[in-house]
Amino acid sequence: MKYRGEIDGLRAVAVVPVIFFHAGVDAFSGGYIGVDVFFVISGYLITSILLHDLQEQQFSLLTFYERRARRILPALCFVVLCCIPFAWLWMMPSELEDFGLSLVGVATFTSNILFWQQSGYFAASAELKPLLHTWSLAVEEQYYIFFPIFLAFVWRVRRSLILASFIVLGAASLALTQWATQNLPTANYYLAPMRFWEIVAGSICAVLLWRDVVRPNVAAAAVGVALVVFAMLSFTAATPTPSIWTVIPVFGTALIILFARDGNRIAAILDNPVFVFIGLISYSAYLWHQPLIAFFRLRTSDDPQGASLVALVMATFTLAWFSWRYVERPFRASPQNPLSRGNVLWLGSGALVAVASLGVFLSAFDGHPSRQTPAGESFAEIALVHDNLRPNVGLHSDCDTKHFALPSNCRTSPHPQTVLWGDSYAMQLAPALVASETRVDFVQVTKSSCGPFPGISAHFGKARWWQCTDFNDQALGWISNTDEIRTVIVSSAFSQLLYPTYERDGTVVDPAEVEERLIKNIVSTQSYLNGRGKLMIFVSPPPQNGRSLGLCYIRKRIFGQPYEDCNFDPDEMTARNTAITRILKRVEVSIPVIWFDDFLCDQATCKTNFDQISIYRDTGHLSISGAAELGRRVNLTGLIQQKISGPR
């Protein structure tokens, strides 16, 4: 197979945005599509090699898997083993358990399934998982378990059907992807069947070039580059991925592979020495970047920026060059390479068993809490503090309901006169209400990711959208028809400001109109409840700056640093905080609002802890003890009573 330098250049175009995206660089909001570019390249290269082997009657499954082992395993095992000492020294027991499981996932090429199972609204931040990026390797290897056999079968039955079979396979996978985008969004992201179509797109390119039915074309290649760059710069975290939108970068990559050839202008740009060099080390760069960024965040509880970002990027490419030169290349098949196929397969299998065994050890024994922190404290002591940062679901875990329900353990008395209604930002208020000096009996009616806005729901996937709409309809009906309920306390994370928002009839709310739509919804809900003899009060979300403030507290404890380092300037508040403030200032004309900023911020600082109590559990949720301490300090229920009884 003829070497194409422009393909290595295309790898560079893929890997650099991925690195900057994971580092949190806003300009590369769609940098994650670099992984999709890699999938297409992989499908093209692997299929081209297999077609050549089949045509030359050299096809062998053992040879194929030997090549994969030489290509994938040396650098992967090297990077993974380098991560273990830092995980042992810096990770909390629960984090070390998860890291150990991820080692097992890496060794068995099932990490995509593991991370899918570990995902969830209250799950540990994905940014802190050093091996999170290995999900894409797992997808590829799962695909290549059956693909060579499938291709060889079609070749022997009727090779003229190869292209048609790829088109059918790709179309089926894309259709499944689009269905899962609406119904199983997290599974859609991680699981292989919903990603196969991207690899198949590369396979289709390989067939077309193998048949020699496509000629180089600068204009078509330029369109491909434009599509890839457009996706990298315009896609955001709110763009469903993968979905029909992902066709844009996938099709763009296919155009580049097909038409940027034979030294034409686009091929020459991609084939320049800098791009080619980055492409050659791109696999190692991809392997190194996530552990470096994750361990940086674990060590500093901050995102890399400025000098630290530059240092991390330089470290990524330096280590990538080292592992490419001294780990990858020595294992590549060549006349000078003394390793036979049998040795490679045995060594590869042994390395994977060793990685899996280390993973089992690290995930066992409750994460080894007897370890000492760098500050000399036992991780067991830190674990007690960390346990307080578990999800704050209010009165009981039963209160985070999938469908509307009124569990008996979600009320503080048989006949409460107050209801706490909303999403997880309402749940977190329950400990504060219980701990307040003024006693108020209340019932908790809450659902994660489901703000108290009847008929207007953030789109987390079709199932949750419908569940939220139904939940709020029933909640509002129960509240309005329950005579003993007099006060309605509501709060929300306002997820509608981050995700696509849908009306009750399924129409999409224009993003530019979401704020106005929320304001009208809040006012109309309050007016409806007032007509039923209920008084509504809104509690604002806590101030937040986008960092995990609960994690910051734990990290300062681990490394013996002052907790005050986690405090932040009010000017650092997130854009969502600012938008929420605009909304609540508008509705405050008719609806009383409790502002967390009044308790936690002055002109210079927003505090994140009370002495040795972390107020936050993550970026915006209150910890259990933090909420309780806040309730005690400000007598939250007493303040609510004052607000609702005061003049409007």
Automatic annotation (TrEMBL):
The keyword Transmembrane applies. Keywords: Acyltransferase, Hydrolase, Membrane, Transferase, Transmembrane, Transmembrane helix. One of its GO terms (molecular function) is acyltransferase activity, transferring groups other than amino-acyl groups. Residues 399-633 form the SGNH domain. It comes from the Bacteria. GO terms for biological process: lipopolysaccharide biosynthetic process. Residues 6-322 form the Acyltransferase domain. The chain crosses the membrane at residues 7-25, 31-51, 72-91, 135-154, 161-180, 192-210, 217-237, 243-260, 267-286, 306-324, 344-365. One of its GO terms (cellular component) is membrane. PANTHER family: ACETYLTRANSFERASE, ACYL_TRANSF_3 DOMAIN-CONTAINING PROTEIN. This is Peptidoglycan/LPS O-acetylase OafA/YrhL, contains acyltransferase and SGNH-hydrolase domains. It comes from Sulfitobacter marinus.
